[in-house]
Amino acid sequence: MTVTIVGAQLGDEGKGGVVDLYGDTADVVARYQGGDNAGHTVVHDGEEYKLSLVPSGAVRGKVGVLGNGCVVNPETLFEEIDALRERGLDPDVRVAERAHVILPYHRALDGIEEEEKDDLAAGTTGRGIGPTYEDKAGRRGVRIGDLLDPDALRDRLEYVVPQKKALAEEVFGKETGEAFDIDHLYDTYREFGERLAEEDMTVDCGTFLQERIDADESVMLEGAQGTSIDIDHGIYPYVTSSNPTAGGATVGTGLGPTVVGQGEVIGIIKAYLSRVGTGPLPTELGGVEGQTPDYDPAGASADEEELATYIRDEGGEYGTVTGRPRRVGWLDMPMLRHAARANGFTGLAINHIDVLAGLDEVKVGHSYEFDAADSASNQNAARSDDGDELLTMPPTTEQWGRCEATFKAFDGWEDVDWAAVAEEGYDAIPENARTYLEYVSDELETPIYAVGVGPGREETVIVETPDE
Ligand code: IMP
Q1: Considering the domain 101-196 in this protein, what is its CATH number?
Q2: Given 3.90.550.10, 3.60.15.10, 3.90.170.10, 3.30.700.20, which CATH number is that of 273-462?
Q3: What pTM was estimated for this model as a whole?
Q4: In sequence order, what E strands does 193-270 have?
Q5: Which of 46, 176, 415, 462 would you call most buried, defined as having the most Cβ atoms within 10 angstroms of its Cβ?
Q6: Where in the cell is it found (predicted)?
Q7: Ligand 1 pocket, 237 CB below 6 A?
């Protein structure tokens, strides 16, 4: 049986904590997309580990797999494995031979393109994710399997590197160095290939996982990022270049959709919204310079800024990988209804309700009013019965940016001893917080499996365990 974990919003929903919690009963934890743009913190035996590529389960003695849908930077991979070994762990990490390799020119081009794009820049993590997926789709990528095959590696590099060099130098007018040098790349990546082979790390992902499932083992499929930054279902072009949605779990591992569909798909929701990157955000509170479009600190409302700063600091809303302050906002229900449909959630984990404790009032963007300038025909989204409100996100980001959120207010809840709540169970959650949680669950017609009431994995109220 598989349990698939998917971010329901814009990434950073606290998936790591849930993977960690439910991953305890899993034998294998496999990532199916993304690369070292993800960031997760795992606390194990009182020690904190910050990882961006190695699946968190590997810290706890599980087999961690990077599926074929991932893009793998071998430098980051070995740095993380070596750092874990130095701290006395022995992570068992496998990498799909079909996964694509992030090369130094991908990182360089990620930075160059972001600079060029100006208003269209997605505010990427700069890890070379987009350019690597571009080469994958353009059939000029280098795969993990090629690192083990010197002739194939050389052939691939000889074809692709001159194109990348010309792009950087002639189109973008940049100087290039060893990141675009075939011999240097060949020597370095050949060595990575030797190490992958020596440590017997490469697998045919689908076969590897199916064998474990056939042996009655439990496999967790870990999505990175979130539904609204999915390249197909997110706020294009301010998205990542892969499919964090549940469909990605099948394509990105080689397990059939019927296999993934027989298991659970758990949507991870943060009780408010956070966003690293650019693009519109109808329920945003305040703003962050360089990320919020047209942000003017001088014209911002002081109350909103104060509230945003409070939530940002209480929730530690600073990027794990980049340290950037995240934009914050109220929960966006049209975004969540869209995510529930696109992923087919069977259960929800709602995190960080402790962060909102102590506020007099907690709001949610229940629906959107659409701008009068938009005719009904170019606002394709689910509507309320009277047709006046949008209940899900419209398909274009420009339309989304013109949506005004209609808010619903909930009475706030008090700060309590959340560790005690986690121990006592769901009914110990303050009543107003339960009203809030049940509203979300009812709107999404999906049961709540877990509620995060603090940063540690013990600080989770477990309502349902997926494979029991
Ligand atoms: P990229 O994935 O580095 O190409 O970045 C594309 C967009 O996805 C940017 O807006 C990033 O901020 C966002 N993004 C990428 N990874 C994460 C993540 O792990 N959490 C939240 N946002 C992310």
Answers
A1: 1.10.300.10
A2: 3.90.170.10
A3: 0.95
A4: 202-203, 219-222, 264-270
A5: 176
A6: Cytoplasm
A7: no
